[in-house]
Design brief:
The complex is a heterodimer of chains A (382) and B (348). Chain A has 382 residues and is an alpha/beta fold. In chain A, 32% of the residues lie in helices and 20% in strands. Chain B has helices spanning 2-6, 62-70, 97-103, 115-118, 125-137, 141-154, 160-163, 173-185, 203-220, 231-237, 255-260, 265-273, 312-316, 342-347; strands at residues 20-31, 34-46, 51-55, 78-87, 90-91, 108-111, 191-195, 223-228, 240-245, 248-254, 322-325, 331-337. In chain B, strands 6-7-8-3-9-10-12-11 form an eight-stranded mixed β-sheet, with helices on both faces. In chain B, strands 2-1-4-5 form a four-stranded antiparallel β-sheet, with helices on one face. Classes of the chains: A alpha/beta (382), B alpha/beta (348).
Chain lengths: 382, 348
């Protein structure tokens, strides 16, 4: 019986390409047409399947040989639906930023697929890839280093039009840029200023305007507010929510601040050491977490309310995150987990709805990669 | 100066002198012909065994105040233009540098935010920890090393004996911050100033480090000044809070009181602008505008351009830090607000 159920899990938990509507495009023009076709609200727009990125570790000077690999991303799968925000949380080194780079096709994936409207972007090139890149844009973490100090704001926001001139004809650009400045809440007359003349929050608005320039469908935000002050953070978050409604954007929101991720996300994925530990709606993850790592992570977040704090259970993890070059066997979290048993060292838990919650009409019935998944509320005071 | 007498946080209930008292401190930075007024009249005090959290955004003057207390202000261009700092009843600003130097490390110590850039990368951590004992107590290298191992044990670094010869880059972020804590604790000081000690760390590690710090503070009965911008971290460990804005303290309160009933529009705005982990909120409240330029602090209350309650008086008169009372005039111990309209803010 145990054998059988394990097999069942296997087929269900490893989402293979069969559930993706692959669009077979023979020619580049067909691929471009598929990429430019609109997607219905709520339908998957980006589908990631078993995405892997290993960075080789080499030794030797003249004769380089590979001695190992940093397994930054080690087989993750998820869907992003049109118009939604998917939050990805995790500690530093868990691979969340590498995922962002892979989705942007800035890093070549070791294996796995990223389907954008049924086209595997890891295999595209030429015109089709250019069309994808237009539709997937990025907002970076540090507004101080991600803007070129020698370019004016107008040049920074208008630069995407040099690569994609079809979006805005040359004579039209200045007006377009001023419109964008207005959209993100900056004075359009600032078009000739330089980045150093702006504060951190304003710079992040410039970064967002640049991301919006090409009317993308997906924006990948890698820690967009973590460098900002608290009072300015709220302004930027509100702006991003407003823009999402206005332009019908889908966001992938990568951050380590769990409160902000809850605020902005429709669904949340928790990553640990290159793998997805748990994924579900914000309510499922925050109010009904079933993976011990998610529980520990949530319980460690300080809540700005001393009273709510006192009734909460705290799980203090021991030790540090292991090296991704040499991850533990079986479940990667087992070295810090208080529930770990022999099974955890032998068998890799798959990301699936846990057997015990299967079919149950409960918020605990969401995908969680733990052999001993158990619901536990750590966010609210007992 | 009236604000000083009335500032409730400075008065000890039993009349005993606090461990540290900062009185009307002003710090400015003069570069060519521009003057940046970083600290403009700060008053606060800390007793032994007490944790004071100084909360503020970047540029609010919270770190500069700490540097003035430690005597590590970059000067020039920095200069204490006015004010006094009493440490164990002694006015330390009037002491010669050689005397200040004896205080630093031995009596008061500081934990910095970024452990990697605060530790010397070419010296082993054991050497750097032992340096404290060799410089201040004249111990031999061998004894200093033994002391270093003991310290590393105390901040719970596993296998301290084997790792004493390791270099900073060989430790993880959390472990490096533990070494910083160990270094601050080395000579068992009476006061520790922790400047954003966990900002660079992940949440699970942050919880470990804050727990350790709180435990050691209890053990040694030290005064702790915790400088941070994170309202969550503060709620966990502090006894009382001072909220800073544009170089002034705008509100002081015991920890529970502040979150329940803020008495300053800035504090209220901050509390409303952070999303909550335990509830899905709607739109966040955003304080409009930007923190002021410290070279041109607006006249009157520095917060007035961003405040939605601002009246004419706020644009002309600087509000002093006055005691906050209940509606019926009953005293609220330790509470103060620098707002002309604190009554409306706290009592609605």
């Amino acid at each position: 019986m145990a054998e059988l159920s394990k097999k069942d899990e296997q087929t269900e938990a490893t989402p293979n390409v069969s559930d993706v509507d692959v669009v077979a495009a023979q020619t580049e023009s067909e691929a471009v047409a598929a990429i430019e076709a609109p997607v219905e609200q709520g339908e998957p727009i980006l589908q990631v399947r078993n995405l892997v990125k290993h960075f080789p570790l080499t030794q030797g000077i003249i004769f380089k040989r590979q001695v190992g690999a940093v397994r930054a991303v080690d087989g993750i799968s998820f869907d992003l639906h049109q118009g939604e925000t998917l939050g990805i949380v995790g500690e530093s080194g868990c691979g969340k930023s590498t995922v962002a780079k892979l989705l942007m096709n800035l890093e070549q994936a070791t294996s796995g697929e990223v389907f954008y409207k049924g086209q595997d972007i890891t295999r595209l090139s030429g015109r089709a890839l250019k069309a994808v890149r237009r539709n997937i844009q990025m907002v970076f973490q540090d507004p101080y280093t991600s803007l070129n100090p020698r370019m004016t704001v107008g040049d920074i926001i208008g630069e995407p039009y040099d690569i994609h001139p079809e979006v805005a004809p040359k004579g039209d650009r200045r007006r377009k840029v001023q419109e964008l400045l207005d959209v993100v809440g900056l004075n359009p007359e600032y078009i000739n200023r330089y980045p150093h003349q702006f504060s951190g929050g304003q710079r992040q608005r410039i970064g967002i305007a640049r991301g919006l320039a090409l009317n993308p469908e997906i924006i990948i935000c890698d820690e967009p507010v973590s460098a900002l002050d608290v009072s300015v953070q709220a302004q930027v978050i509100n702006l991003m929510e407003k823009l999402q409604d206005e332009f019908n954007l889908s966001y992938i929101f990568i951050a380590h601040d769990l409160s902000i991720v809850r605020h902005i996300s429709d669904r949340v994925g928790v990553m640990y050491l290159g793998k997805m530990a748990e994924i579900g709606t914000d309510e499922q993850i925050y109010d009904h977490p079933t993976h011990p790592y998610t529980q520990a992570l949530l319980s460690a977040v300080p809540v700005p309310d001393p009273e709510a704090r006192e009734g909460r259970e705290r799980i203090i993890l021991t030790g540090d995150v292991p090296s991704p070059a040499n991850p533990p066997s079986g479940c990667r979290f087992r070295t810090r987990c208080w529930k770990a048993q022999d099974k955890c060292a032998e068998e890799v838990p798959l990301l699936a709805v846990p057997e015990r919650f299967k079919g149950a009409d409960s918020p605990a019935a969401h995908e969680s990669a733990c052999h001993f998944a158990e619901e536990k509320d750590v966010v609210h005071a007992a | 100066m009236t604000s000083l007498e009335m500032a409730p946080s400075n008065a000890e209930p039993d009349g005993a002198a606090p461990l540290l008292e900062v009185r009307d401190l002003h710090v400015e930075f003069k570069v060519r012909d521009s003057v940046t007024k970083a600290v403009n009249g700060v008053n606060y005090s800390v007793s032994a065994g007490e944790t004071l959290a100084v909360l503020g955004e970047s540029g609010s003057g919270k770190s500069v105040t700490a540097q003035a207390i430690m005597g590590i202000l970059d000067s020039p261009p920095g200069r204490i233009s006015k004010g006094e700092i009493f440490f164990q009843g002694q006015d330390i600003l009037s002491l010669p540098e050689s005397e200040r130097r004896k205080l630093r490390g031995a009596k008061m110590a500081m934990i910095f935010q970024d452990a990697l850039s605060s530790l010397n990368p070419v010296l082993s951590v054991g050497y750097q920890l032992g340096e404290m004992f060799r410089a201040h107590q004249g111990l031999s290298r061998k004894d200093a090393k033994a002391k270093a191992i003991e310290l590393m044990d105390r901040v719970r670094i596993p296998a301290a004996k084997e790792r004493v010869g390791d270099y900073p880059h060989q430790f993880s972020g959390g472990m490096r911050q533990r070494i910083m804590i160990a270094m601050a604790l080395a000579l068992e000081p009476d006061l520790i100033i922790a400047d954003e000690p966990t900002t660079a760390l992940d949440v699970t590690v942050q919880a470990q480090v804050m727990d350790l710090l709180a435990e050691l503070q209890r053990e040694y009965n030290m005064g702790l000044i915790l400088i941070t911008h994170d309202l969550g971290v503060v709620a966990d460990v502090a006894d009382k809070i001072a909220v800073m804005y544009a170089g002034r303290i705008v509100e002081t309160a015991p920890i529970h009181e502040l979150y329940k009933r803020p008495a300053h529009p800035y504090t209220r705005g901050l509390l409303d602008s952070i999303p909550r982990l335990d509830q899905k909120g709607h739109e966040l409240y955003a304080i409009k505008g930007l923190p002021p330029n410290l070279q041109q602090i607006p006249p009157g209350c520095a917060f007035n351009p961003r405040c939605n309650k601002a009246q004419d008086i706020c644009r002309t008169d600087v509000p002093p830090l006055v005691p906050v009372t209940e509606r019926d005039g009953a005293e609220l111990v330790g509470r103060g607000s620098a707002c002309h309209f604190w009554k409306e803010t706290i009592h609605g």
